[in-house]
Design a protein that fits this description.
The chain has 306 residues and is of the alpha/beta class. It has two domains: 100 residues, Up-down Bundle (Four Helix Bundle (Hemerythrin (Met), subunit A)); 192 residues, 3-Layer(aba) Sandwich (Rossmann fold), CATH 3.40.50.10470. 42% of the residues lie in helices and 13% in strands. The strands form two sheets. Strands 3-2-1-4-7-9-10 form a seven-stranded mixed beta sheet, sandwiched between helices. A three-stranded antiparallel beta sheet has the order 5-6-8, covered by helices on one side. Strand 5 and strand 6 form a beta hairpin. Helix 2 packs parallel to helix 4, helix 4 packs across helix 5 and helix 5 crosses helix 6. The longest helix is centred in the N-terminal third of the chain and has 31 residues. The two termini are 27 Å apart. It binds ribulose-1,5-diphosphate. Ribulose-1,5-diphosphate (RUB) binds next to helix 2, helix 6 and strand 6.
Length: 306
Amino acid sequence: MSVDDTAADIKSMKIRGAGKIARAGAKALSDFADSYEGTGIQTFLADLEKAKRALLESRPTAVSLWNGVCFTLRGVAGTKDVGEAAALVASNAEKFIVSSENAVKVIGEIGAKRVQDGDTLLTICNSSAAISVMKTAHRQNKNIKVYATETRPWRQGILTARELDAEGIDTTLVVDSAVRSVMKKVDKVFVGADTVTSHGSLINKVGTSHVALAAHEARVQFYVCAETYKFSPMTLFGDMVTIEERPSSEISAPGELPETVKIYNPVFDSTPAAYIDAIITELGMMSPGAVFGVMTHQLGYSAMQP
Ligand code: RUB
């Protein structure tokens, strides 16, 4: 698929979820490089830069997209000709896609160790990484129940409920405002991540911080399922994560409200590290306080490149 079509599909949420948009960005750059017809390396690099910008501008919050795109273009500036550059883009993209899909599987296996037979779980939105934990636990014959929150305004909870139900998991959909009431019945919360900051706080679908607060109040464990390419290198340098605001039409139909009523539609929020029991990554489970060390020492210099 072309870069412009991919960027448009990410912007319109046809392709959504932090992992999927990162893989779509990598694939679009690979397709772009593969079908490139020019021969000048400098023009190719400039065109790749434009393609990168178009993808990065499609959605601003999930650092996964940034990391996926940057990983795909790594080393390309040092290549001699278009053939070598295009081959590197394709092999980087392939590596990123394979390792990111594998990370979701590994997170499922690690996270499932925290799920006990008979547990009632809760999740928000539609996270492949969080769903991987629940599906893995279920496939291990653990008898689990899951509450999926509706997740206004896009109602991604419907997707989650369908997916869990298709797997044979006992699933209950609740409206977002029911979270505090149902928390009394919940043993553990598993959520996904769009971005994890260097001090271990989580940026995820708006409402996640309320879920975390309700879990904290009820002494329910709160786990974040995040591949390490959701760690944001920019936050090491003090950058704030941009919270995407989407159109008012996602909340209210035209004509439904007087024109004087304003609508504010932020689609992500920030959950402080203090409300997170652990972050489950493909490298293992870690406390939010360990993110800085993993980012700087284990993932190495490339993870620190803003
Ligand atoms: C999706 C969302 C998901 C994370 C993680 O928001 O907040 O929890 O992206 O998903 P949106 P995954 O629907 O606005 O993209 O684990 O699949 O990467």
